[in-house]
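Retro notes
What went well: the complex prediction finally ran end to end.
Inputs used:
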Amino acid sequence: MILSRALLKRHSVLPGFDLALGFALLYISLIVLIPLSAAFLKTFTLTWQQFVDATTSPRVVASYRLTFGASFLAALLNAFFGLIVAWVLVRYSFPAKRLIDALVDLPFALPTAVAGIALTAIYAENGWIGQWLPFKVSFTPLGVWVALVFIGLPFVVRTLQPVLEDVNRELEEAAATLGASRWQTFTKVLFPIVMPALMTGLALAFARALGEYGSVIFIAGNMPMISEITPLLIITKLEQYDYAGATAIAVVMLVAAFVLLLVINTLQAWARKRQGGL
Amino acid sequence: MSSTAVAATPPTVAAPGVAPRVLRSAITEPVWVQRVLIGSALAFMTLFLFVPLATVFFEAFKKGVDVYLAAITEPDALSAVKLTLVATAISVPMNLAFGVAAAWAITKFDFRGKNVLLTLIDLPFSVSPVIAGLIFVLVFGLQGWYGEWLRDHDLKIIFAVPGIVLATVFVTFPFIARELIPLMQAQGIEQEEAARVLGAGGWQIFWRVTLPNIKWALLYGVILCNARAMGEFGAVSVVSGHIRGQTNTMPLHIEIVYNEYQFAAAFAVASLLAALALVTLVLKYVIEQRVKHQKRAVGDRTE
């Protein structure tokens, strides 16, 4: 009763608003909001100086560099090949296309630990791919990047596909009629249409990669200063009962994730506007 | 709506006879470009998707079927399977109840703060699994808010099954709500209002009108939620304590066995989860077709 009187903008004949919203709010508070606030409150037990020391020590900074750097490079590769995969799946026909389309989601469905040990086996020095490479992949920062490419793969493809499907072919016909070459049509007509979605996909893959743990730790080798990712460092601190230190790093990562969420929402709004205008 | 518009154009273009072939070549790429693009897409996917998937099964059976069977029937593996099933069986229905309630409130009513609620639902997706585990340690761990009270009452949440369930609920939180909200938004409220006017009660409306309309999207969300719940590693790893035979889920069991260099055994258990992933993809594909069909039906009705 209280909820509906306070919040409802318009009266509705349908029942269940108080029950549904009340339950949803209670649940979201207990499972998400209160535990998350614990992370922020815990950092207040530190002085500002302690917080700065915990989050900017050389080992922590090295882990940021690896985590953010490898995540970005992985998202970049995914953006490039994701565009090609999405294009091929929408525009061309070839054998086993539907099977391949369905398998794009494998990284969503395959548990990260499984992906982690599989990638490690493949890229180890005697692995299926590792034995042919002149350099080491498993147990190096390059291995971190490989794992992050794997888990980010579906994001770009799945955000681009619906946009490419909706592209009005008449635009391309018009460009061709006006004498544009196929490459010009792509760069000047098609690319601007799909650009917002491509950026969204890239940001989503990057965000996912930042927090990734399971697939990375097996292949990374986890050497401090070299191949140690930030989420692992949080666990290491936790195992040393340095709760405040672990939480301080977690808060830095949470803030980065929330900023990214904001960026993604803005990009999505942009993509919708761009698409709606055509 | 736009898909029907596109579908309507080809006949009018194709009519003049010679024109379409010229036009078609003007808006597609030369065959060699197509081949290069298809080739590089397949090469990329083979390298990063198909080879890892094949490796799991190859490594699992490398030392023979006997080793495989022994690895998945040893007591620790079985108790890991059991714990994974228990955690999933609790967390999926909880998130199902939340998803339906949140979707009902958000899509059937117009209220202040709706966008805030929508953003909050997505929040767990942007939180690292490790941090998802950490926050529950901060609340329920021995040093946490309720740590002493829990110890005094002889209750254990962290390093025990309840903690594993909580962490799993957190990471799978948005799946079902996210599938339901867009569909229910598109379906509108006319049918429910009609049922109400005809004298149906709240639960009657839900079971007889709403549920039949959303059952495929609901199932879709449940399948995704289930896959993630069974495979979650990072969050569960933080709260579990890794006690063999007691607080190890399947992914954690894989990690322990793998770190003991029992690779064949690790991949054997991993192959069970990989098989689950493949089943998930098949079901997902089948249901996707249904939902697409349903969305098109909704679109036609509103036109």
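What we learned: Residues 224 and 281 of chain B are 9 Å apart (CA to CA).
What to try next: split runs per interface for comparison.
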